[in-house]
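Lecture 7 notes: from sequence to structure.
We start with the chain below.
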Amino acid sequence: MSGDLEPAGRTSAQTLFASVFAKGLGASATVVAANWRGLALAVGAAASAACIGGLLWYGARRYEDGYAQAETAAKAQATRLSEQYRAREAEIQQNVEKSHAQYRQRIAETQSHAADLDHDVERLRQQLDALRRGTPPYPAAVTGTDAATGPDVIGVIAACAGRYEDVARYAAGLSDQVFGLQAYIQGALARAR
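Predicted structure tokens for the same chain:
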């Protein structure tokens, strides 16, 4: 059919374009019907290009949406982790301050106890001095026994005084250890900050 309309040596697409340009934009139905294959190819190519362009645009849009969503999720995760870190840091700081207060309290108790022991040692020394001079620190007992005829009270009190001095020295050593631990903790806190 198309062979009837085509001049020799021309293809159907060339014939179609030649006839459209020869007659203007209002091509006759006969020319279109005769060259439907070329027209179908042109329409198919345009539709394919439009589909490919649409798919590329849709893919790019989906990529941008996914990237924005991933970026938002990453920011939310970073904010959550930062808040958790700050809460943990505040908890650790609170525990450190509580421990520091407990150590200060123990140091004060140890110093108070050492002062009490020093006072007791001084009182016992005064009693020993009084016994050595022969004046009893307390009035004679109701039984009427004399302190000089009783058991070796001076020796017992001297042993007690010596033991109190040992306890006072031990307490002073513990106090030094507590101060050392306190300095160590303060140094660790300074490095942690």
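Points to note: The longest helix spans residues 36-133. The radius of gyration is 54 Å.
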